[in-house]
């Protein structure tokens, strides 16, 4: 299964897609607007926004700066997929352990895990997708 087929499996009635670019504030706003109808409350919403932001930063810094953000809601959950075409991130990079104290980098995946109910990293033939899920 490639990135395209993974993206097409989402319910189009509750899904939006955005190309990833360098404007992080715009991406955070897209996520906030998508979450607004769910009335999650301030902290849960902002934690999810931060998790998505961290995944997008990884694409910008480590995966050539291009990818797709796919936001989906329904079935009692909201999810975000951040997909790139580099395929550099592998499932073993799931951020299960915190970075070493004082480490200058390596916090992104760990924070994503702290803020989401489920995180899956899928390496595909033509890239990688990080799917972050928050149960409502």
UniProtKB/TrEMBL annotation:
Keyword tags: ATP-binding, Kinase, Nucleotide-binding, Serine/threonine-protein kinase, Transferase
Organismal lineage: Bacteria, Bacillati, Actinomycetota, Actinomycetes, Streptosporangiales
A GO term for molecular function: protein serine/threonine kinase activity
Keyword Cytoplasm in annotation: no
SUPFAM superfamilies noted in UniProt: ATPase domain of HSP90 chaperone/DNA topoisomerase II/histidine kinase
Domain Histidine kinase/HSP90-like ATPase: 24-133
Protein name according to UniProt: ATP-binding protein
Presence of the UniProt keyword ATP-binding in the record: yes
PANTHER family: ANTI-SIGMA-F FACTOR RSBW, ANTI-SIGMA-F FACTOR RSBW-RELATED
Pfam family, one: HATPase_c_2
Spans annotated as Disordered: 1-20
Organism expressing this protein natively: Bailinhaonella thermotolerans
